[in-house]
């Protein structure tokens, strides 16, 4: 039940524009929007890379990568008619997500990684197996690290947050070597996640029904889920989905586009040795 509540709270807490499918940055803005964008960028300070207002930073050549990425983010929010005060708050969260060096302590040994194991950036998500946002965002990230823009740049791991059979089923699938097949099938499923649906997915993947059931209901699965949930709590994580990029907590918009953007920025910073 805890994982269900966490996802429900996340749906309520995040504004509607925080979870939308593949909304692109607009090519152009109207005059009023351009004025709003200019006003914001003339007061938002980018300490890293230019130590000045974003507007001035964007005029330097070459423009630092961080400034360009923040500009795209501001432009996206302005086009969505977000108030300037809210944009400034969101920009602060994004700046912190991209530049913070405070890394969480996360065990990466219990769940399989998707993507190139040699990729330098690790994305870790705490998810609930019954959470629609978790399904959507993680599926997009999975595609990005396996066949998309993050292939060779980033790899992905997810860990369960909250107790319950659905989260234990992730452990069971992992123990049978079918973790990502199972999760992606679950993410593609329609309707409410139930024990019946979970068993049907396991059966569709030709996983031994008896072995899967035994693993999902084992004390070991319960222990692993409890450890993962306690680990998340130690980093202040209480809602699903919550992601860490390069072990730094990501606190900006959970639109997959911006999570991917954050991973690309971390990749570029790693290449430059920063």
Radius of gyration: 20 Å
The H-and-E topology, N to C, reads as HHEHEHHHEHEHHHHHEEH
Structural class: alpha+beta
Number of strands: 6
Under the CATH scheme, the architecture of the largest domain is 3-Layer(aba) Sandwich
Strand content: 5-15%
How is the biggest beta sheet arranged? 4 strands, mixed
As a percent range, the share of helical residues equals 40-55%
N-C termini distance: 42 Å
Describe the protein.
- This protein has two domains: 27-99, Helicase, Ruva Protein, domain 3; 104-263, Glutaredoxin, CATH 3.40.30.
- A four-stranded mixed sheet has the order 4-3-5-6. A two-stranded antiparallel sheet has the order 1-2.
- By secondary structure, the protein is α+β, with helices and mostly antiparallel strands.
- Residues 1-6 and 8-20 have low confidence and may be disordered.
- The chain has helices spanning 2-13, 31-41, 47-50, 54-59, 65-79, 84-99, 132-146, 165-175, 179-188, 195-204, 209-216, 219-234, 256-271, and strands at 45-46, 52-53, 121-127, 154-160, 242-245, 248-249.
- The termini are far apart.
- Strand 3, helix 7 (132-146) and strand 4 form a beta-alpha-beta unit.
- Helix 8 crosses helix 12.
- Helix content is 55%, strand content 9%.
